[in-house]
Amino acid sequence: MQKFSVADLTARSDGPILADAVPGYQIERGGITRYETGARSHPEGHHIHTVPEVFCILQGRGVIEIDGVATAFQAGDVFVVAAGEDHHLVSQGELPLLSAWMHLVIA
To answer: Closest by alpha carbon to 40, among 62, 68, 59?
Structure first.
């Protein structure tokens, strides 16, 4: 997992905003998910992808668990989760967690 801030991402007129953070990839699809305080993403257990996934924290705070290791986050943080890493978000703030997620594909 790599951690960035929104300010670290640079827009390019000819490519995705993630071009420097995740070279060689582009966004395939994504969405925005809301988690109430105490909620954990993917409560069914082990959750991985065959491609990288990006999380942009839009509101709230909490921890992201990568292969069982928790890292704190707050609004404005961006995470690039590598293919094969087990990942979960846990909302711990007063405000509900809003996270934009994006699955990437090779450009």
So the answer is: 62
For the record, the structure tokens of 44 come out as 């069914």
What is the rounded distance in angstroms from the CA atom of residue 23 to the CA atom of residue 92?
31
What does pTM read for this prediction? Answer: 0.92
CATH for 2-106? 2.60.120.10
Amino acid present at 32: I
Residue 103 token pair: 């699955």
User: How many CB atoms sit inside 10 A of residue 30's CB?
Assistant: 15
Per-domain residue ranges for the chain?
2-106
Report the C-alpha gap between 12 and 71 in whole angstroms.
29
Decide: helix, strand or coil at residue 16.
Answer: coil
The residues with which 49 forms a beta bridge, in sequence order, are: none
pLDDT in tens, the chain (107 residues): 999 998 888 777 777 788 888 888 999 999 999 999 999 999 888 999 999 999 999 999 999 999 999 999 999 999 999 999 999 999 999 999 999 999 999 98
